[in-house]
Design a protein that fits this description.
47% of the residues lie in helices and 16% in strands. The protein is an alpha/beta fold and 205 residues long. The strands form three sheets. Strands 3-4-7 form a three-stranded parallel beta sheet, with helices on both faces.
Length: 205
């Protein structure tokens, strides 16, 4: 998630979106909660905030988002399983992710949430550099999580990337369709208006 420049950084954008949703829910007298998936196989205690309507809960939750840093390679499976176990009927879960997960594993978790009566919206965050990479000369690609480097032809990479991106988006959209999950693609250089509109529509539905 730690990719993109400035305000368009996916992790920064995701933290902001999460904080805005939490404040919105609290103002409507609902109980926001938070689970942050990191490099651990399960969600650490400090990254799990059970839903609560208490004012200090919201303040601590937002502070945690402000200070939380990306922590490198991650394993969603354990954390997602924890989330399924904690979600109760008639709850609403918002996934804020760049969806770099196995589609089959994601489908399994979303299906299990649906069977528990949880409505889910998946906010798929992508930086503009991922959606529209513009390279003409050879470039050095650096993995933001592992630091590994690779030199590639820029124009060829842009074409291959576009094909790969189309497949990834198609896979995630199909998973969401099959599990009746609301899907919202969010370029991180765009305002949060569309995310809030889609969230409010799902919440009122």
């Amino acid at each position: 998630m730690d990719f993109g420049d400035g305000a368009g950084n996916k992790f920064r954008y995701g933290r902001l979106l999460c904080a805005v949703l939490a404040v919105l829910l609290h103002r409507q007298q609902d109980a926001p909660g938070l689970a942050v998936f990191g490099k651990e196989a399960a969600v650490p205690v400090e990254d799990w905030w059970p839903p609560s309507t208490r004012r200090d809960h919201l303040e601590h939750l937002v502070h945690h988002l402000e200070t939380r840093a990306a922590d490198g390679p991650h394993d969603h499976r354990g954390g997602l399983a924890d989330l399924v176990d904690e979600c109760h009927r008639r709850s609403l879960a918002a996934f804020i992710t760049d969806a770099l997960v196995d589609p089959g594993e994601l489908k399994d978790v979303l299906s299990r949430l649906g069977m528990r009566g949880t409505r889910v919206i998946l906010f798929h965050l992508l930086a503009r550099e991922e959606l529209e990479p513009r390279f003409d000369d050879d470039v050095v690609l650096v993995d933001q999580e592992t630091g590994a480097e690779r030199v590639v032809d820029g124009a060829a990479y842009a074409r291959l990337h576009a094909e790969h991106l189309a497949r990834v988006l198609g896979d995630i959209e199909r998973v969401c369709h099959d599990t009746e999950t609301e899907y919202c693609l969010l370029p991180t250089d765009q305002p949060l208006d569309e995310a809030l509109r889609r969230f409010l529509m799902l919440r009122s539905g």
